[in-house]
Design brief:
The chain contains 4 helices and 9 strands; from the N terminus they run E-H-H-E-E-E-H-E-H-E-E-E-E. With about 190 residues, the protein is an alpha+beta fold. It has one domain: Aminopeptidase (3-Layer(aba) Sandwich), CATH 3.40.630. Strands 1-2-3-4-5-8-6 form a 7-stranded mixed beta sheet. Helix 1 packs across helix 2. The longest helix has 14 residues.
């Protein structure tokens, strides 16, 4: 397992990340140049605070010339009933179709959850459309708290996540904060 840090991703790895995404989510109508440039903007030109710097956990193919699985740690400050908390946002969990059912997805997700277990983050919060059972097997739970983005000028009380399930992973012995969770920004 390797870690790619936003702001330090090479052009070659950016190409590999784009290739993985396109293999998993083929779309003939996708403008590859625009998609590649948007990915470059997020991962090569990061200029925010160090504590919020995104990281990707990747697994390379045997020859090292491809990335076959990845997850993204998207640190985020959110507001809960306990006050402002630093959480581990989880996103971009992807395994190449030719390499599924080998535990690679579990490994890249576990890398993020290990940071929660280690006390680096209060919890992990994320969304999923189709992988609820996968995450439940890893100890995750459905979030029933209202999720909002108070900074959205048009819909500050709407759930900023788009997928069906919002889920959380908590370190052993920790509890979900009661009440509303304000992402203080868009869904991820």
């Amino acid at each position: 397992m390797e870690i790619l840090v936003a702001g330090e991703v090479s052009d070659a790895d950016l190409d590999r990340l784009t290739a993985l995404f396109c293999a998993v989510y083929p779309d003939p109508a996708r403008d590859l140049r625009a998609f590649h440039e948007a990915t470059r903007e997020r991962w090569q030109r990061y200029g925010g605070p160090e504590e919020l710097r995104p990281r990707r956990f990747i697994i390379r193919g045997d020859a090292g010339d491809s990335i076959i699985a990845k997850s993204s740690l998207l640190p985020r400050r959110v507001r809960t009933s306990r006050g402002e908390e630093l959480i581990a946002g989880l996103g971009d969990v992807t395994t190449h179709p030719d390499h599924r059912n080998r535990g690679l997805g579990v490994a890249v997700v576990r890398a993020v959850f290990d940071l929660v277990d280690g006390g680096g983050y209060a919890l992990s919060l994320f969304q999923t459309a189709n992988a609820r059972v996968f995450y439940e097997k890893l100890g995750c739970r459905i979030v029933t708290n209202p999720i909002v983005n108070s900074l959205d000028p048009t819909a500050p009380t709407a759930n900023p996540f788009r997928d069906q399930w919002v889920m959380s992973y908590l370190a052993p012995g920790h509890m979900m904060p009661p009440g509303e969770i304000d992402l203080l920004g868009p869904g991820y």
